[in-house]
Task: structure prediction
Amino acid sequence: MGPRAAPPGPLDAAGEPAARPLPDLSDPAAVCAADPLLVTTAYVTGSAPAGVPGTLDGPEPSGRPGETTADDHGGLRTAWMRAGQSLCRAQPPAERALVLLAALGDGADPRLRPALADLATAAPWRLRWARHRGDLTPPWPGPVAVLGAAGGPLEGTLLVSDRTGTVRLLHEADASSAGRLAHTVPGRIAALAPAPDGTVLILDDRGRLHTVRGTAPRPPYLERLTEAVSATLARHPGTALAAIGGSVVVGDRLGSVHAFGLTGLHQAASHSGRVTAVAAVESETPFVCSGGADGTVRLWTPGRDPRPEPLAERRSPVVSLHAAETPHGPLVAAAWADGIVELHRPEGGPKLSFRPGPPVRAVAVTGSGSLLVGTDESLLCLAAKR
Result:
């Protein structure tokens, strides 16, 4: 008979496996380093004391929305529960600290933010800002269904549509309000495509095109192009929309991508099944990227054959896609229905990934290279460290 197997861990006085000690749930370093399932269970059941002297106990509640109580451990519990399953994945403590920092509301203990930022130093992202339901400074901008990052006259402005079809304008620097987009599109909005001249193209949930003109007059050739696309979508509804200087790009339910330009129409059968998102980049070599229900993200230069290999692929539908030319070269952000967000560099370089926890509804890349991630509860802005 072989040697008896060693017990799985320390035993209690009765010879049974001893319960693992609970971490201090008010200490961000202890929480990020502990077994995440143990932390989750303790937060859900309220089975742990609210900290010990010298740790970050939460302030007394003042009655404002989002304010913490002792049971909330300074706001850590709310942030942990908001981030959900993302924190239970196998990952280094620095990346767990980043997720927790991104989920922290503005009513949390003010000592938590710098503490978590220090713990997240080795993570590949830096959090620029985060806005959550209940935040007051500045106020939470509302649920995110569709995102757009504008250029031209609207440079530095974010367009955020909720599920009712309201489009809010936000300052990119801090997500503070810059007003609303004056449009008359009834119902839900499926895609926003800010054009370089300040015009905003909108695809509604029936696949029809709408135009919200900016303050600058549009060149006649762009008017004719937009009218031609609108007439086409009235007969053959689109499922995705993007725009650059002289082109409007549309995806359809059969997997094809159509680039309407001043020199004609180019088409590519890029996906198996519905095209769920498209983006276009006006770089030295303009290109289109598209995402589909088949889980792939593909690149295509109109007039050429699509690249045979996908830029990215997961076993989950693509729910959002955006691309932009930045000081670091073109960047492509993609989000899948499984909650993962990836940032890709088509010209070469490592990809970066992030999972906020709740389902991701929309992503965007700003002209400075920051990544925006929108959910039903939050809007985050991250900057890649490398």
Q: What stands out?
A: The chain has two domains: 28-123, 146-384. The chain has six helices and 23 strands.
